[in-house]
Amino acid sequence: MSKAISDTGSTPQKDMQETSTSSKPNKGGLEGIVAATTSISKVEGTVGRLIYRGYNIHDLARTTSFEEIVHLLWFGTLPNQQELAELHARFVAERTIPSAVLQVIQALPSETEPMDALRTAVSAWGAVAIKGKPNVDQAIALTARFPLFLAAFQRLRIGKEILE
Q1: What is the pLDDT of residues 60-75, one digit of tens each?
Q2: From 98's CA, which of 23, 51, 75, 141 has a CA 20 to 30 Å away?
């Protein structure tokens, strides 16, 4: 199991005067700029560490499944076996493509980049499925559909039928 690392949410903000008078050349981008602070993750770029809720991403990648990591991100803890089984069952139950979204996917040109197809399908799904503020139930429903959206698009672009 992965070992938790403390202090994921306390990224100190840089002094504005120090940032503006720095003698380092500006390379562009957001290097050295704190865009937001969060308890979910911490980037320690100078030492090559990405921390999710106290766990080093390299440890998580070696020891946990995708479902365990999303549980950690959404609920704050790694799941026990029952929680993992429940999340898996919820993913399975959500593995459908609404007909309106399927029509959008079918209308995409075959040369569309897969990420563009995914973004378009996600937007179409959100337009027909999201009501009110985003929540964990909607995140589970959408996450369960990512592979379906991409698989449907790929099969169509190579001239095959979509599997049900």
Answers
A1: 999 999 999 999 999 9
A2: 75
Pair 122, 80 in one domain: no
For the whole prediction, is pTM greater than 0.70?
A: yes
Number of domains forming the structure of the chain: 2
32 plus 82 within the same structural domain: yes
Name the residue with tokens 């100078």.
Answer: 46
- pLDDT tens-digit profile of 118-146? 999 999 999 999 989 999 999 999 999 99
Among the candidates 53, 70, 91, a domain finishes at: 91
In terms of Cα–Cα distance, which of 112, 113, 120, 164 is closest to 146? 120
Amino acid identity for residue 161 in this structure: E
> Can you say whether the dihedral through the CA atoms of 31, 32, 35, 38 is positive or negative?
positive
Is 9 part of a structural domain of the chain? no
Determine, yes or no, domain membership for 58: yes
The segments of the chain whose pLDDT lies below 50 read: 6-21
Domain annotation covers residue 5: no
Work out the burial of residue 124: count CB atoms within 10 Å of its CB; fewer than 13 is exposed, 13-18 middle, 19 or more buried. buried
Rounded Cα gap, residues 44 and 58, in angstroms: 13
SS3 state of residue 60: helix
Range of the domain at 120: 95-157
